[in-house]
Amino acid sequence: MTSRTGRNIEPTAALWSERADLAESAIVSRHLRKLWGIPGTQLGVVGWPPTKRDRGFVSWHYWWQAHLIDCCVDAANRAPTPARKRRIWSIAHAMRLRNINGWTNNYYDDMAWLAISLERAERTQGVEEARGALLALEKDLYAGWEPEVGGGVPWRRGSDFFNAPANGPVGIAMARLGRYRRAVEISDFLDEHLRDPDTGLIFDGIHLPSGELEKPLYSYCQGVTLGLETELAVHTGEPRHTERATRLVPAIEERLTEGGVVVGDGGGDGGLFNGILIRYLALAAVMLPGDEREQVAARRTAATIVRKSATAAWENRLEVEGDPLFSADWRQPARLPGVAGAGSFTPGGSVKSSRHPERDMSVQLSGWKLMEAAHTVTAAGL
Fold first, then answer.
1. pTM
2. Statement: residue 73 has pLDDT above 70
3. Which of 145, 222, 239, 353 lies at a CB distance of 3.0 to 4.6 Å from 268, suitable for a disulfide?
4. Sheet strands (E) in 175-334
């Protein structure tokens, strides 16, 4: 923002709260619908404008819905209302129905994200209905650890690929469910097997027992590792977790930002990657312990990335009927999507971007996460 005198004015926490309200309103109006007309359910339509498959929830993307719940918890924690609390369980209930076979599936990252969102819902909003789901998810996530190949949790049941996008959220879920020993094992696994010695960032994953590395450096991987190390730094007090988180933040700033704004422009599953990074940068900004110069600097850097990214995304939004439509690349103006070119599945099971990634709910959820994160760090005085 710029004042009439031409000086930059930092948005207040109240202003970020208003922007988060608008991001929420956009998701609610464009994406939330009853599942198959069933009372008491809501689920996120994965594209806007939607295809017939989207409206019928033929495509529904389990892990996107888990992040939708997490955003709803953010809003309820920031400004509690009965409607916001009810919405959390209406989405979780719809997920259970749409998943057909219970709460769990074959993908450990999917289950971890749902566990993270429901644990927060129960702990911060008193959503007691989440307890049964959490018991089922916790059992499968804890059992996913495979010591016979050297540890780690595979991407999916039976896979030889042990990646950060599964291990990071499983570790966070384990920490928040009080399974600190398993969370520590996962953090040590990530640091030993997937930390790039040249950049300090976290590789995508490793095939075991062959040891073949997959070396892309995704924002998602940095976010979940930072979140896990921050959780463990707070709850175990072991210095190595604070040190790892403290080292990771400047590596993120150097390699994954431009002018302080997180880079990246993907849709599909990738549309959530930067939002995940932002969520855990905000967590580190407000929770990472330590009063030494490096730790203070890491918290400030994390908060600055959040605020600059949020400012850029807001300035580059489109307004459609008064609500924001965020760009997949927060540095570039958003484009109005059409129904053509809807995202589809890859042979490996991930979701490809729509022709215009702004169409994908994943991209818009990242925008909502970003507004909530900016409120979080600004309200904390960072």
1. 0.96
2. yes
3. 353
4. 205-207, 212-214, 257-258, 261-262, 318-320, 323-325
